[in-house]
Amino acid sequence: MTTTPVITTPPNFVRLNESVSLREPPSSSSPASSSLRPTSIAQGSASGNDNDNDDSNRPLLILCMWMGASPKLVSKYTKHYIELFPSNTILLITCTMPEMFFVSTDRHSKLLRPALDVLLKYRDQEQGMVAGVYSNGGSYCLTQLARLYRESTGGEPLPLQATLFDSCPGSADIQAAIHAMYTTFPPSVTKSPIWATPAWLIAWFTLKVYQLMFAVTGAVDPITSIRKSLLDTTLFDLNNPQRSSFSSSSSSSSSSPPASSSRTFIYSHEDKSVPYLAVEAFVEESKAIGWTVAKHRFEGSHHVAHANLDKERYWGIVAQALRR
């Protein structure tokens, strides 16, 4: 007898498939049960009742969560995003370990098709797009989505006005990859005196096989591929004319062109899944290409858990990075 895994949808979201969910603000819907669909976006948003200047002109917010993020944590993060961006449509993309390691690119592209449909609705609208990306799993989903967008628009890069990178991108370090995979197992496994060691061995064996396969075939490992894709200006629009002025109290690039899209990085020295040096090297690479960058290093926080250390600082950075 087989059982179907329960797929939990975060509050205020409508699930489009097992990987993609959508949340539209109440002011743009009528009634919610039928309007929270990608097709409703084409009709535009109704005027809101709050004091914002123009609720209908808020950018689409794309959230790409980390590999194996639990429904509880996904709901925790989406709750904060809705509080910060109540007038934005939010496109939520989740990623499981099998999707990243065992599912073919073609199959994963099909899973992302509903997300692509939403992006295409925003293609010619004034709102623009911003993204919050978590860990290597979220980075992978974003690069896959950018490829689909480029293919569907005849070669256009994804026009992100601003991107927030939390705990990413990583490097091809095998120990970091093992730790990242291990943390996707539930606490009932990783904290069990019986199952913790077997789980670690499964992660070690799986990634060692992948490492050997890449060495034999000469193929590029997934993390290196993700890093290269995130720097590819045919995938991600470097000079976005919709972008508003970007400033940061942290270290931002003063040499970048004023019209360039912004990239903000949150990371920590203690992160065992994504080495801090890998993030800092990527920051410099992004700056050299022309993105406006800002980096915020936390001391004492762990992988995709920086908000636990300093909630006010973390969400303040998120708001500053993505509000347009």
Brief sketch in words of this structure:
Belongs to the TMEM53 family. By secondary structure, this protein is an alpha/beta fold. It has helices at 32-35, 38-41, 71-84, 97-101, 105-111, 113-122, 135-152, 174-182, 187-190, 196-217, 222-230, 276-289, 306-309, 311-322, and strands at 14-15, 20-23, 60-67, 90-95, 129-134, 160-166, 251-252, 262-268, 292-298.
Report on the architecture of this protein.
The chain has 324 residues and is α/β, with parallel strands linked by helices. The chain folds into 2 domains: 11-23 and 57-172 and 225-240 and 259-323, Alpha/Beta hydrolase fold, catalytic domain (Rossmann fold, 3-Layer(aba) Sandwich); 174-220. The protein contains 14 helices and 9 strands. The chain has helices at 32-35, 38-41, 71-84, 97-101, 105-111, 113-122, 135-152, 174-182, 187-190, 196-217, 222-230, 276-289, 306-309, 311-322; strands spanning 14-15, 20-23, 60-67, 90-95, 129-134, 160-166, 251-252, 262-268, 292-298. A 9-stranded mixed beta sheet has the order 1-2-4-3-5-6-8-9-7, with helices on both faces. Strand 1 (14-15) and strand 2 (20-23) form a beta hairpin. Helix 6 packs across helix 7 (135-152). Mean pLDDT is 82; it is low at 1-5, 29-53 and 243-258. One of its GO terms (cellular component) is nuclear outer membrane. Its main location: nucleus. Belongs to the TMEM53 family. Residues 18-40 have a biased composition (Low complexity). It is a single-pass membrane protein.
Query: How many domains in all?
Result: 2
Main sheet properties: 9 strands, mixed
Q: What's the tally of helices?
A: 14
CATH superfamily of the largest domain: Alpha/Beta hydrolase fold, catalytic domain
How many β-strands, per DSSP?
9
Major sheet: arrangement of strands: 1-2-4-3-5-6-8-9-7
Which architecture name of the largest domain does CATH use? 3-Layer(aba) Sandwich
In the predicted model, the low-confidence regions spanning at least 5 consecutive residues are 1-5, 29-53, 243-258
Rg, please? 19 Å
Q: What is the helix content? A: 40-55%
